[in-house]
Design goal:
Length: 338
Amino acid sequence: MNSNANSNSQSSDLNGVDDTLTSHVLVCDEDNDAMHEIKGFCAANNLVGMLVQTPALYNILSTNIHLGAIFISEDIDKNGVSGIEVAVEIHKLRPELPIFIRRKEESSLTDFPEELQKIFAGCYKLDNIVALTELINRYIFGAGYPNEMVRGIREISTESIKSTFKDMDVLCDTPYLVKDKIIYGELFSLINIESDWCRGYMMLQAEERSLMNCIRAGKTQLNPIDPDFRSVNTMLSELSNLTWGGFKSRFISGDLDDSGAHKIQVPIIINHSHKYISFGSDEPQLCFRYTLVDPKGNLQPVTLYQKFVFSLSFSPENFKENLQEVDDLLDSGELEFF
């Protein structure tokens, strides 16, 4: 399994995409009754559950798959390994991922040693699955991204991609939230986002070879003859600026005040060998996956990942769209549809 295999996500163009946020979770549990309950819980709570057997778990965690959490049972599996032992190893590999452990008898973690308690984001029992609802709301969906913002980002970004790539269909998966800090591909751009209701970054991530093939095929405005890595950098930079411009025009109004709160910065840590980036925050990242398809079939599909991390401040209660300004311009005749 890899990051391109979001088989449970809904892919579409601008028409008919569900903007309800989802999150992918790994489920490591071999109890049939529990699996039935967890499957129903995921379906009812906007989670895309992916069942994994313990031997394959570590291989999956080493891939680029984007995850929001891990569901695990404390039971001993058929290989004689307890869920607690597995959780300890998961925490070593991916400490940013919340782990929710299913327990049979206890309704808390207080019987675990203190160091072991720190590994888990929480626990639940099948007869008290409401506790799991509280956990996912706190650790996965707690950021409270407004639907208007999610839909607007998708629309702005899709149009920006269409302006950058010629004669390519743009598909977008249902947007989702991730807790991991994995980088997809060899290339990513990073642009600062700052307003009176949010501060953070937008990332675009891609594979260099795929973008290079688009340039060579004449699918961009760049010279298709002998492009190099600078050509790819230029294209991704222009796409980032175009998308940021649309975001600013639609979601940011007025001048940012000059208070000290807006001067706070957090170091960004990038570890290239582990394809890892950290913004100093555990808040879930808002992720969009776009697939560019050549309708003539001459090119392999191109995948772009877009992530938003509002690691410095986020006040969704102050969010609003600047749609009234567009209406005013239409009424005045300064702007018209064509």
